[in-house]
Structures
1.
Amino acid sequence: MCHCCHILFYKMKESFLNRVKAFIGSECSIDASSPVLVALSGGADSVALLRVLLELGYDCHAAHCNFHLRGDESNRDERFVTELCEQLNVPLEVKHFDVPLFMQEHGVSMEMACRELRYDWFEHLRRQDNCQCIAVAHHSDDNIETFFLNALRGTGIAGLTGMKPRNAHVVRPLLCVSRDDILAWLRSLDQNYVTDSTNHENDARRNRLRNVVLPAIYSEFDGSKETLLKTIDNLTRCNDLYRESVGVMRNIVSEREGNTLTIDIEILNSFDNREMLLYEILKPLGFNYEQCGLMLTSAVGRHFTSITHKAVISRAAIEVEPLAELKEEMHIIDLDDDTITEPISLQIKKIHDKKFSPKMVDGKKAVAFNNDVLQCSEVLLRHWRNGDRFKPFGMKGSKLLSDLFTDLKLSEREKHSAWLLEADGEILWVIGYRAAQAFKVPNGSTSYVVISLD
C-alpha cells in the first residue's frame, strides 16, 4: 500500500474511533471502571463493536449464542468467534439453545424465541461477571429500518424515534455510524468476519425492507438516508419536548388526601389536543386512549375503571382515585350455582342436550369443561403467585404463567389483577386470557359445563 493510502486509512480509522468515542460519552454513559459484555455473533457489526471498544480501552467480555438454526453455518460462527476472542485475549462465553423446544413450550415465534433466550442469558452473564452493561451492535441503518417497521405497524411519536442509545443495561455504541462505515473500518484493520446467509432471504419483513424497499428509496431519492436519520433525530427531540410539555401541562391536576386526583375540565378543554393530554395524564394509572376520549363527552356521574383506579365525571372535574387493594385471600366458589358475583361475575351453565363444538367458546371469556369438574372437592378463584404453572389448551407440556403474561405483554398491574380458576390445585383458566387442557370436552359431547365471564 502506498504512503498516501496509509495516511487515508489512518485518518479514516481515527475518524471512526472519535465518532464512536464521542457518541459513547454523550449518549451511552459507559465508563472504564467495570467490564462491558459484548453480544458477539461473528458478523461484521458485532466484530466491529468488539474491536472498537477494545481500541477505546474498555475491558470486554464476549457472549455468543448458538441457536443451531443454520446447520453447519451456526457451528462455523461459533468457531470463528472462539478463534477471534483467543486472538484478542477476550473472555468468551458460548451457549447452545434449543429454539424449537422453547417455541413449543412458550407459544412464540422463532424471532421472539431467539430474542428472549439471548437477552435473558445476556442479563444473567452481566450480573454474573459484574459487567456494567450489554453492548449490542445496532447501527444507523438498523435505526432507519426500525423507523419504517414501526411506522408501518402504526405508532405514536415515540415509536418513530428509533432505538435508544441506552435502554436500561443495553447500550448501542454504533448508532452513530452506518453499515458502510463499519465495513470500511474493518477493511482498514484487515479484520474478517462471517456472514449470515439468511440475511439475503426476503421472507422476513425486516429483510424485505433492508434488501428491497430501502435500496429502491435510496436510489430514487439522493441523500435520503441522511435525511431519514435527520428526521429520526428531529423526532427524538420533538418527543423529548412533548414529554416535557406534558409535564408542564399537568398543572391542571391537583391532588387531595387519599391520592385522589382532580382534573379541572374547564382548563382541560382550553387545550386543542385535550384528548391526548388527558391520556398522557391518565396512562400511568392504567386508562386507555378510548376511555379518555369518552370521559370528555360523558354525562355527570359516569365512572370509568382501570385495573388500579376509578375515574368519576363531576360537573367541573374528573375525579380519579385508587381502587381498593386487591384481595389476596382465596375465594371458594360452588360450580353448582348458576351465577358467581364475587369477586368477579361468572355465569355457569350445565349443558345436557346440545352437542359441543369448540367454536362455542373462545378460551378467553368463555370456557368449557367436562362434567368431571363438578366432582372436584375445592374450586376457587385467586390471583397469580410467582411460580404458577398451567397446561395451556392446544399446547404440549406446561407453561409458567409469568411467561404467558410476558407473551401477552401484560403490565405488572395486569399480571397481579388477573383472576385464575383453580380446581383441586390445578389451574383451569386464566380468566380473560387462556384456558387450560384440564377437563377437556370431547367434540360432539352433549353433557358439559360452560363458564363465561359476565
2.
Amino acid sequence: MIKKLDLYIIKKFLGTFFFVMLIILTITVVFDTSEKLEDFLRNKIPVGEIIADYYVNFVLFYGNMFSSFILFLSIIWFTSKLASHSEIVAILSGGVSFNRLLRPYFLATTLVVALSLFLNHFIVPSANEKRLKFENKYTNYASIYTNRHLELESGVLVYYRWYNLREVMIERLWIEKWKEDSSGANIKYYDLQANRAYGDSLSNEWHLEQVFIREINPNGEVLQEYRQLDTTLSFTPEDFGQRDNHTSTMTTPELIKFRDQQLKRGADNIATIDIIRYERTAYPFASYVLTLIGMAVSCEKKRGGMGINLAIGIAAAISYFFLIKVTTVAATNAGLSPMLAVWAPNLLFSAIAIFIYFRTPK
C-alpha cells in the first residue's frame, strides 16, 4: 500500500525528473537550432512545420534516449537536497528502514522504465522516421557506404565500391547471377559491370553509365557494351543500404523482420541491428541500477554538499557510457555477442551498485 512517505518521495522524484529533462532538452534544442538555422532559412520552412515535423519528434527521441541519465541526475539532485535538510535522517530515525525508503524510488523508476520501454519499441521509431525525413529533405547530411558485397536475391550477388545515399549514386557496380547446372554445380550465367549507377529511390529504375554485360549460355558468350543504359533491375537503392540510423525508424517487430532479410542477403550489419534491438530493453533497465547508485551516494549529508554528489554521479554516468561504447565496438568488430555487449555494462554496474548499497550507512 502506498503511504504518504511514498507519495512525497515519488512526487519529488518525478517532479525533479521532468524539470531536469525540460532544462536539458531546452538546451539541446537551442544548440540544434543554431546548427540548422541556415538550412531552415535557406529552405524557407514554416515555423509550424519545423516544430511539428522535426522538434516534437526530436524531443521525443532524445528525451527517451537520455531518460536513464536524466533520472540518475534527478535522484542525486533531490536526494542530496533531502539529505542536506536532514530529512533522510529524520525518516530513518522515525523507524523507517533504508530498504523501505528505497521502495518509492523504485516505484517511480518502474513508471519511467515502463514508459521508456513502450516508447523505445513502438513510438520512438515512428517519431524517428518523421525526424529523419525532415532532415533528408531540408538539411545536409553525408552517408557513404564503401566496398560492400550483398546477395540481394537467391543467386544474385552484388558488389559496389562506393555508394552515396544522398545522391543515390553508386560507383563501380558489379552484378553476378548464378544458377545450378544439371550436375548440381553453381555456374555464372550473367555478369554486369557499370562504372556508375544512378537509382530512383522510389522505383526499380536505374541509369547506368559505361556498362559492360556478359551473358553466358550453352552456345557461348554474348558481350554488350553501352555508354549509357536506362534499365529496370529487380532491386531498389534501399536494398544497397540505408542511412546509418535508418534502423532507428523501425519498431521492434519490423527490426526483427529486417534483420532476417539482411541475414539472408549476407549483409555485414547484423551485429549492429542486434545491438540496437537489445539496447531498446537494456537501456531502460539501467535505470534500476542507476537509481540504487544515485540514492546510495546521495543519502548522506556531505561536506561538499550537492556538488560532490553530482560530480560522483556524472563520473559514474560517463564511465557507464564509455563502457557501453567499448563493448558495442567489440561486438561490431571483434565478434563479441551483441546481447552480452549491451547487457555487460548493466551487469557490471549492478555489482558496483550492490557494493555501494552495502557500504552505505543505514
3.
Amino acid sequence: MEQPSPDEVEITLFGPGYGESVVVHLGDGCWIIVDSCYGAWCRSDPAPVWYLKQLGVNIEAQVRLIVCSHWHDDHVGGLSEVVRQASQAPVYISQALRNEEFLTLLELYDRSPMDEPGTRQISGVFRQCRGGRLKFASQDRVLIAAAGHQVSALSPSDLSVQDALAVFANQARSLIPGSSPLRIPSLRPNHTSVVLSIANPHFQALLGADLEVTTHSHRGWQAIIDSSTTLPDKASFFKIPHHGSENGHHPEVWGSRLEPQVTAVLSPFRGGNVVLPLSRDVERIKSLTDQAFATGVPRAKKAVLPAPVEKTVREMGKEVVELPQARGFVRARRRAVELSSWRVDCFHEAGPLERLYPTDRAG
C-alpha cells in the first residue's frame, strides 16, 4: 500500500464485525483517527495504527487529531494505545463525558470486578492526556482546520448532553456506599455520539458515527437537521451511522444533505443476538445509492472455554461466542482541490453492498 498524494483526500473505514474505526487523510500528510478497533490482520496494534504504519506514516508527527465518537466497547478497542502512539494529537471526546457524574462513575468503575473494555479504555485516555490535550466535542464546534479542510463536530446537542448527565447522576446516586458499579450505563438511544463533517470548497463528507434518530428537535439526528450551522449541504461521502440500522437512518439526511449517488460505507456488527445490517436495512440503502460498500459480513463462532468456565456460563443461561474478526476495510480517495469522483478500493473481505449482501442472504 502507498500513501495518498499530498493533494488527495482519503477516508478508510475498518469494521471487523465487532469494532469500527475511520482514518482520514486531509492532505499534505495530515491525518486524523476516529475511534479504534482491532482486527484479524493486526493483533499487536489497533487497526488505525497498523494501517498508518503500513503506509509509512510517522504517527507521532502526522496524526493531527483523534476523535472518540463514544465510549461503547466496539468503538474504543485499543484507543488508549492510539492516544499513546499519536502523542502530539489533541483528543476529542463527547461533551457528554465532561461532567463530575461521569468522572465519578469512571473512578468507581476502576474498582469494579467486571471487565468492561470501553470504560477502561476511556480511563486510559484520561490518564494519558495532560496539558490540555483532552478536549470535548459538541454541536458545531470546529475541531481542526488543516490542509484546506475544516473538521467540525455536528453533535452532541446541548439537550443530549443534559440527558446524559442526568443518567450518570442517577446511576451514581443508586450505588450502595462503598460499592462499585458493575457497568456504566450505555445510553439508549445513543444521542451523544460525535458526528463529524469534513469540508473544503470542493467536497464535503459526513461521518455518522452511531448517532440515532429521534422525533425531538433538540436530540440526535433531528437536532443536527434543525439546528446545526455546519451540516454539509451535499456530502459526497457518507459513513452510514450505526451499522446501517434503521434507528440511525434519517430520511432528510439522505434526501437533502447527501448527493444522489453518494459514496456510502458501513461496517457490520455482531454481538450476542444482534446482527446488523438487517435485510431491510440493506434494501433501504441499496435503494438510495448504487455506490454502497461494506467492510465485510460479520461471522461468529463458539469460543473454546475450560470445562469449569463453560459449566458456569451454561448454568447462568449465557452463551459465549468468539467476537468476529474479519479482515476487510474500505478505502475511498479523491483529489481535494477539484471536482472529482471517489475511487473506492475494497480490501480482503470488503466489497460492494450488492455483492456482500444479496437480497436472499442479507440479515
